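# step 3/5: fold
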Amino acid sequence: MTRSFRSALALAPAAWLAGCAMSSPSPSPAPSAASSSAPTAELMKWPDLLGRQRPEPTASITYGEHQLQRVDVWVPAGPGPHPTVLMVHGGCWQTEIADRRIMNWVADDLRRRGMAVWNIDYRGVDREGGGYPGTFLDAAAAADALRTHAAAYKLDITPLVATGHSAGGHLALWLAARPRLPAASPLRTADPIRIDSVVSLGGLPDLEEAARPPGSGCGTEVVARLTGGRFEDTSVPRLGPLGVDQVLINGMQDRIIPTAYAEGYAAPMRAKGDKVRVRMIDRTGHVELIAPETAAWAATVEEIERALGRR
């Protein structure tokens, strides 16, 4: 267990901890240095978000036998059909650090705005069956289950926008890239759900870059555990062009994900023909990206609504 994880548990309110039956979300370990035009003291810390009363989803469904093979469904009021967002949590691909419930506050915000959310979970690299290929196959199965349940919850999945935070930003982009997987890849499945656009929040889409020292706040070892050294079907740039609109939203003071990762991914993907935009948000670290009152989340809502044709 990392020092930062222990610190987060010590700071989190007892009421919040009592409400977590599974491993509790926490800050990512060993933050790396990044640009800092705003004082660190002004940035949000994880207890600022995790200490709040946690909203609850409309329903939960299972897509497998493991307790992490679950999806929370957030359905707005009204008869529907409801525009839908596929959401993927981060946590350095490690269940010990975070599960899907770290996204509850922003999922609830989208629900209040009239959008449904399909918030998926998956086995992290630190769980039996996780890593390669399990983490990827879980994310794929959870995403594809949306088609199975869309009618029951009156979810409109055309168009479908995916959004993910941190490691979830990588997985959201990877889910959009599934039609481009090599034919011989163990990660390839028939008829993947179509994703029309992706909004990545402080993501790590280029796993080869994240695997190079000094790496990110997630560390280089976890990327090795996630990929097993196979980048041809796990790192998104290897699968480009994706043929979907992509927006990367990053905090200029993010100490977990290097700010250079965004344009470092975007530039070569644009060269391949993809439409990729980068939005750098000042006075923003890693937590602000999934806190509903922040400028970063306002930018995310704007991009999601634009992708869904609501703007």
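# step 4/5: annotate
Confidence is low (pLDDT under 50) at residues 1-38.
# step 5/5: archive (pending)
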